[in-house]
Write a structure and sequence with these properties.
By secondary structure, the chain is mostly helical. Helix content is 51%, strand content 1%. Helix 1 packs antiparallel against helix 3 and helix 15 packs across helix 16.
């Protein structure tokens, strides 16, 4: 079934969603399969999928014929199947349900291409590829212009992230994404070349064709952009009402096409350059990030960017709606943060990742409002429970809280990443993480990115949740400061901080 090139895209999604539904139920019961592969997936004649061989109960000695069948479960030092086991299984470290997400990503890749993403000449070559290399793109070298194909490729990339914190965090999350793709296929069936009835064998050619059409549109877009650039060069000589002074923010290369039309290398270069710009807005002495950190930010930008294409989940607002909600709140936030001498960029984009700029949003643990204060913390900073939806009250409280953390952690660009982390974890947890690293290396760089690089040495909560918090902030800020690249019809949000100094 897996290598059947007569499968349609609709059939692939149906089979794979059944697989994820089964795993969702297993994970809810505390069961991690750890050996998802084609041999353990059975499709009955009535179309119902069954998952076989749940879990590897104990370590077994490898048998002599293990080398004969490369998809036979190999156990001993490692548990799982070469080619399908996750990087953490290869390393022999503790695993959770996200190890099954990786294996599902391998299976989906194989269903769409009839090849394994990390297949090497030997099992050793395959293991090296799994740990160190990225798979070939699903549909050729170009990023597919077709919206559904682009989303499918993004889903596979997320599932095959080598860092578990960067993957889908549950089978339910991936299932939601695929369900939305299926609905998108149904909505666009009469308009697009790709539909539920498209054979998987036809997808590479259709992706290339859609990219060719997109390239022609990009040439027109670039020519138009050249004219606009000349216009704006002149316009920059005139002070606009919504412009404000941006100190420390370096100039960056102009991007002349939308983010979703950039190839992988162009996206990474864009993210790396814009991260430096945001870091400079946060304070002095920004640090240049390594490729892994840039990839972490890009991972979140990719998720946001899908919402700019109208592919948001039913529970999500479009990117335009979310960022549009920010505009009327920014002057109030800017005044409060300016009064406490906190970088305005922090005040603007913290509510984006905390509440999606919903003034009265309340999460499952009772945190409420734009800045998601718990009632006890709000009261400690002078905000009554009845006032937690009032931005005039909570913005000064959030600024006060962050000013206290800056007094403890510092106020340069690198320290501000720790201040951001403390908003998610609390200051004591940040201090504890720093102490652990200092015991191992007294010369470590004191910033969030050092903690991120050493996250495997930190607690499970950091690995599962906090490791993505600061990258998510940078992603939100990069989008808000480059609205034209993400098809947002508004000026950069920091320019709305009228009559406030930027730090």
């Amino acid at each position: 079934m897996i290598s059947d090139r007569t499968l349609t895209l609709g059939q692939v999604l149906d089979v794979f969603m059944q697989l994820l539904s089964g795993l969702r139920a297993a994970h809810a019961a505390g069961i991690v399969h750890r050996d998802i592969k084609p041999e353990n997936i059975m499709l009955r004649s009535d179309g119902v999928l069954k998952i076989l061989d749940f879990g590897i109960a104990k370590l077994l000695e490898p048998t002599p014929d293990a080398a004969i069948n490369p998809t036979r479960t190999e156990t001993g030092l490692m548990m799982g199947t070469v080619g399908y086991m996750s990087p953490e299984q290869v390393r022999g470290v503790a695993v959770d349900e996200r190890t099954d997400i990786w294996s599902c990503g391998v299976v989906l890749y194989e269903m769409l291409t009839s090849r394994q993403p990390f297949r090497g000449a030997t099992n050793a070559d395959t293991l090296v590829a799994m740990l160190e290399r990225e798979p070939q793109p699903l549909f050729g070298s170009q990023v597919p212009a077709d919206r559904v194909l682009h989303r499918i490729q993004s889903a596979v990339i997320i599932a095959l992230s080598k860092d578990p914190a960067m993957r889908y965090q549950s089978a339910a999350d991936m299932l939601d994404d695929l369900d939305e793709m299926r609905r998108e296929l149904q909505r666009s069936a009469a308009l697009d070349e790709v539909s539920s009835a498209t054979l998987v064998s036809e997808l590479p050619a259709l992706a290339a064709r859609s990219q060719s059409k997109s390239d022609r549109r990009q040439k027109f877009f670039a020519a138009s952009a050249a004219v606009l650039v000349l216009f704006f060069i002149g316009a920059l000589l005139i002070k606009r009402p919504w412009q404000s002074r941006q100190t420390n923010a370096p100039t960056t290369t102009i991007v002349t096409k939308p983010y979703l039309q950039l190839n992988e290398a162009e996206r990474l270069a864009f993210v790396a350059a814009q991260e430096q710009r945001i870091s400079a807005m946060m304070g002095d002495h920004p640090v240049k990030l390594n490729d892994e950190a840039v990839q972490a930010i890009k991972h979140h930008i990719d998720r946001y960017a899908a919402r700019s294409e109208g592919l948001n989940k039913p529970s999500e607002d479009s990117l335009q709606t979310s960022y549009g909600r920010a505009a009327p709140q920014i002057p109030t936030i800017a005044r409060a943060f300016h009064a406490r001498k906190i970088p305005i960029v922090i005040g603007i984009y913290l509510p984006m990742i905390e509440s999606d700029y919903r003034p009265c949003f309340e999460n499952e643990i009772g945190a409420k409002g734009l800045f998601q204060f718990l009632p006890t913390t709000a009261e400690r900073y002078g905000v009554k429970r009845s006032e937690m939806c009032d931005v005039e009250k909570v913005a000064p409280a959030a600024a006060h809280y962050l000013a206290d953390r800056m007094a403890e952690l510092g106020d340069d660009s690198q320290s501000m990443t720790l201040v951001l982390l403390s908003y998610n974890r609390g200051a004591e947890a940040v201090f504890d993480a720093l102490r652990r690293l200092r015991e191992a290396d007294v010369n470590y760089e004191r910033n969030f990115w050092t903690l991120f690089a050493n996250r495997q040495k930190l607690d499970a909560t950091f690995q599962r949740e906090s490791a993505g918090y600061v990258p998510n902030f940078f992603a939100a800020a990069i989008i808000g400061e480059n609205p034209d690249v993400f098809d947002l019809h508004m000026p950069p949000l920091s320019t709305l901080a009228t009559n406030q100094s930027a730090f």
